[in-house]
Amino acid sequence: FPMEKLMEQFLEQSAQAEENFYRVEEQRLQAEDRRREAEHARELHMLQMLAQVFSSGRPSSSSSSTPKPSPPARPPVISSTPPSQHTRGPPGHLKRPASQTDSFSQPPSTDPQALALPSVLERYYSLGSSSLGGMDDDIVSLVKSIVPPLTSKKHKGQDGRIGIIGGCKDYTGAPYFAAISALKVGGDLSHVFCTKDAATVIKSYSPELIVHPVLDSPNAVEEIEKWLPRLHGLVVGPGLGREDFLLKTAKEVIERSRARDIPIVIDADGLWLVTHQPAVIQGYQKGILTPNFMEFTRLFEALHHEPMNSSDHQRSVMQLSAAMGNLTLVLKGEQDLISDGSKVYSCSVEGSGRRCGGQGDLLCGSMGVMAHWAHAASTAGLIRGMNPSVVAAFGACSLTRQCNNQAFQRHGRSTTTSDMIQEIGPAFRKLFES
């Protein structure tokens, strides 16, 4: 039938044209990213040269024609804290160790040139183009440094294209919460790969999500894989369910995403898969697991073949992270414990006593975006001395807890995750843009 053949050729040509468009668009975006990185490097180099000019142009005390009388001598005030020890502020916030000169009381500099350069640097770094990690080891400052600046030069998709693997007949809310949270945090596009009977429901929640009803199709892996080159991050598990076919599909998608070096956050039923097949994500440094206490217990006992020591959660978190190949692990609880097997960080931003369903979906959706930001910043050399996945996890945990707190202040016992999502913007500004 000539008409059917023509239609088939037309569809093939349309699909090929779409593939070519996305390929060219991806190349253009990569070129734009390289141009912006080079521009930032030039700006940083100019600032470094400016610092040298300021330091070399500052008059020395010996060049003064009239020597100034020195102030009366007084004994130095020595700090009671040894210089080699780290000081600790509020829980979850680490401060750099005091240097030898920090142990003495000294008057602040009043040299205008000495004060000018830090203010210039502060304005430059506040745009999010680099990290303040060298000046302040506080992990919150590192989170602030990975947040990409909002500029008119950007194009749709540059700040994050995130995929959610999940959504079935029984669970349609979880993938929606994760996907919409990714957008509210600052990602540009959210894709939901769900089963056919869940797609219409999820689409009805929001027109802002891109919904693909392919998760239960016979060629589901191939249908999802063709989108992987366009994604910056993957969240596996919200609303996935535990049917064998869906878990098998999720496993293969994780493996193919690993091969493409895509950051992966695994939550909910995705953790059920990891508990039974830990090798699927084991050792992947761009992987993050976000179990609650019960999920953590099952995973710990599956890997260690012995009961977990419930009296020492920090030690257990570090042990499990190490057993999983030092990937980043987040144990959600009264305080969120985050570890990559070498250290344990405690996020104790005040939340509330309200524990409604869906909060974990907000967490993993926002974490998917922040993982992309953190690894992009690390690749650009903007994060040093800290695992990017840990930075992303800490940022998402802080944000979720802050959203919970703000929503609870408004709604009290009736707080739901939908109320928390409305607080993402204000909470983000308070934590990371103030």
UniProtKB/TrEMBL annotation:
- UniProt catalytic activity: (6S)-NADPHX + ATP = ADP + phosphate + NADPH + H(+); (6S)-NADHX + ATP = ADP + phosphate + NADH + H(+)
Q: Ranges of Low complexity compositional bias? A: 55-67
Domain YjeF C-terminal, chain residue ranges per copy: 139-431
What's a single GO BP term from this record?
metabolite repair
Where is the segment annotated Disordered? 51-113
What is the required cofactor set for this protein?
Answer: Mg(2+)
Q: Where is the composition biased (Polar residues)?
A: 98-112
Q: List the EC numbers from the record.
A: 4.2.1.93
Q: A Pfam family for this UniProt protein?
A: Carb_kinase
Q: Under which main EC class is this enzyme filed?
A: lyase
Give the InterPro entries listed for this entry: CARKD, Ribokinase-like
Tell me what this protein is called.
ATP-dependent (S)-NAD(P)H-hydrate dehydratase
Species of origin reads Poecilia formosa
